[in-house]
Amino acid sequence: MPTLGSVPTEQPELELTFAWPRSAAPHQAKKITGLTTLSLEALLESGPPRTLPAGALVLVTGAIPFRIRGRVAVALEGLLQQMALDECTALVVSAAQGVHQPFSQSIRDMSDQIDIPLLITHAPAAQWAGLHASIQKRRLVAAERRAAQFNALVQQMPAQLADPKAMQRIADWLARALDVQVLVSEPDRVLAASPPTAAEHLVQAIVRQSVGSSIAESPSTPHTQLISLAPSAGADTFLAVARRTPFEETDLRLLRHVAKLLGLIDQARREYRAAAEASHAARTAAVELLLDGEVDKARRVMANLAPGLLEPDTARLFVVESEPARRTVAVRYCETATAGHALVIADPREPGRILIIQPVRPGAEPDEIVAAELVRLVSAPGPVTSLGGSGVYSMSMLAEARHEASTAQRFALYQPDSVALSVQDTDLVGLLSQHEAQRWARHLLEPLMQDDQWEQLRETLLTALAYPYTVAARRLKLHRNTVTRRVARAAELLGMDFNAIGDRIAVGLALELVTHRELPAAPRGGEAPTLRTLLEAPQLHAWADTLLRPARDDRRDLLTTATAWLTFDAHLEPTARALGFSEVTVRSHLRALEVHTSRDLSSLSGIRDLQFALRIATGEPNITDGGRTLCAAA
Fold first, then answer.
1. Which of 118-132, 154-168, 482-496, 593-607: highest mean pLDDT?
2. Measured distance CA(596)–CA(398) in Å, rounded
3. Which has the closest alpha carbon to 170: 260, 271, 273?
4. Residue-wise over 13-36: b if at least 16 C-beta within 10 A, else e?
5. Which of 512, 513, 516 lies closest to 436 in space, CA to CA?
6. Is 355 helix (H, G, I), strand (E, B) or coil?
7. pLDDT of residue 211
8. In the prediction, which pLDDT does 423 show?
9. Which H or E run contains 265?
């Protein structure tokens, strides 16, 4: 929109100059909404019009005398009074060449009183003919541009006011719409900036600007504006904008609308954060109560937040590990993934840990959707790095479930997929140091691997060590004598007795490592490790403790029975005789061990896990390592 300062520059043919006041600076920025032309003759005959357009530039044409006096002066004073009532912008009179100050003192005094400047033009009236149409066209273009801006602003409104990206989107739009730098900030942090370097340029403006000042009255710098997003609420969030050219009134009006929208978003953000913090505190309290066995209190806490979630009497617990700096993001991911089927909190005791409690109705299978979604989070790039899970526990026993899940999570660090959904299902071989385990296995099997019949021997031993020879022969589609001959040759080469359970376990483990596990990245010189050193890893101590804990809690001395049974190469009769039990009692103890450890003690892998767990936890029974028997004192 043109101003009193811009018209003389843009249209010099109008020969428009200020006659009064002497300093034109205060009036340069006054807007002109149109041109109203009056002839001096009509003004003298009929007086000023009853109404004039607001913001109009009033031009009086005709034979204006060198000095305005008498009737002309009275007519112009009446016109000025009407212009003041209608809030016109300025009065222009046509003057002859060489005339620079035709106005009388009384007219100049009135000009000062009503704050309407006086101008003169030496151009003929014909030169002014197109000014009004030009002004209206420019006003129309400006109005259409502002309408488009407001329409675009409305489109920036988020579907949810608490949308965390809404402020940045609006800041980016405002920066493009007005060609400005934009900063939305609190005293201790930046909420949105466009471009990203805007904070560096606007920080001084924020420091200097008075908190209570309005944008139109006291800008902190010539072309900087600072607006409080919620002045009535006393909030300390501000919108700061800056650009190289001055702001027009329409720009300031748009800024005020943007500030109102940002204020609503900021209010929603604060309320959402307060509600989220309250919800987080309640959920954390509920989990603490559950871990303390206060199930009824926990249900009351969660009754309004998640009705019915804690109604079941049993639950499963997961432990998720994340990068500490990104745990908040990881919690949101877990909440989204579990979709209301579980209780998710950030563990207050560990900076990178998240606890997830999934209620399970007694007798029903756990909903695998929760576990599957959590596994997906671990496998996808993001803040979630590992996952451990527990079995199904009574709600009053969730402290035990947490211990199991935490142990499983530690095991998960050694698994290829960083997941261990149950300690009972944890793969012992996966917990070994793979490079060192390969070196041990290859050293143990070296005599076999150098034999011309290595492939046949390996294939046969894998099955023959795990099953009776008759069953192994049937599985391998070989004659029983062929299986017996190959096993005997392998035992001879290795210097072992496969009737001894320890020898069978050691060779079976070594064969599994060289057959089903990846080769070491690079060979390493020096003496090969021993099986004892492999079993000294901290994660294996945790695994053994977890595997044997249920058996320890049994009133029967199951571990003593297991140790004796393994010492006598899994034979019942000598075991019963050594313990002074009946064979029925030994069988009962072994069945109980199978339940407590979730291991099949009729399989070589089940016996192996039991033997290694006992050896790690108690130092007994003896184990075989490369033809040598490692005793408890070894």
1. 482-496
2. 18
3. 260
4. ebbbebbbeeebeebeebbbbbbb
5. 513
6. strand
7. 44
8. 62
9. helix 249-291
Q: How confident is the model at residue 113 (pLDDT cuts 50, 70, 90)?
A: very high
Helix (H) or strand (E) holding 543: helix 538-552
What does the pLDDT read at residue 101?
Answer: 81
- Between the CA of residue 500 and those of 459, 496, 624, what are the distances in Å? 20, 8, 9
- Among 243, 231, 219, 229, residue whose Cα is nearest residue 186: 229
C-alpha of 298 from chain center: 28
Sort strands 314-322 and 353-360 into parallel, antiparallel or unpaired. Answer: antiparallel
Please give the backbone phi and psi of residue 225, each rounded to the nearest 5 degrees, phi first. Answer: -125, 140
pLDDT value for 220: 45
Q: In what helix (H) or strand (E) does residue 360 lie, and over which residues does it extend? A: strand 353-360
Q: What is the pTM of this model?
A: 0.49
Evaluate if residue 60 carries a pLDDT over 80: yes
Distance CA 113, CA 254 (A): 32
Q: Which two tokens stand for residue 134?
A: 């030009």
What gap in Å lies between CA 497 and CA 537, rounded to an integer? 28
Contact 480, 473 (CB under 8 A): yes
**Tokens standing for 425?**
């299902």
- Of 262, 248, 159, 243, whose CA–CA distance to 195 is shortest? 243
Question: 27 with 117: CB under 8 angstroms?
Answer: yes
E strand spans, 229-286: 238-242
pLDDT score at 429: 78
| Structure tokens given for 385 | 């790095």
Q: What is the pLDDT of residues 72-93, one digit of tens each?
A: 889 999 999 999 999 999 999 9
CB 359 within 8 A of CB 393: no
Round to whole Å and give the CA distance between 481 and 364.
49
Among 17, 75, 8, 15, smallest CA distance to 45 is for 75
First-to-final CA distance of the chain: 96
**Nearest alpha carbon to residue 319 among 380, 376, 392, 385:** 385
SS3 568: coil
Residue 390, phi then psi, degrees to nearest 5:
-115, 175
Q: Over the stretch 320-343, which tens digit does the pLDDT of each residue have?
A: 999 899 998 999 899 898 888 999
In this structure, what token pair is assigned to residue 353? 């840990």
What is the predicted pLDDT for the residue at 387?
92
> Average pLDDT, whole number, for the chain?
83
Neighbours of 571 (CB within 10 A): 12
pLDDT score for 479 = 92
More confident residue, 136 or 338: 338
Neighbours of 79 (CB within 10 A): 22
- The mean pLDDT of 113-124, rounded to a whole number, is 89
pLDDT at 411: 79
Question: Where do we find the tokens 């409080």?
Answer: 228
Report the distance separating Cα 597 and Cα 549, nearest Å: 9
Residue 59, phi then psi, degrees to nearest 5: -110, 125
336 and 354 in contact (C-beta within 8 Å)? Answer: no
Question: At 13, which amino acid appears?
Answer: E
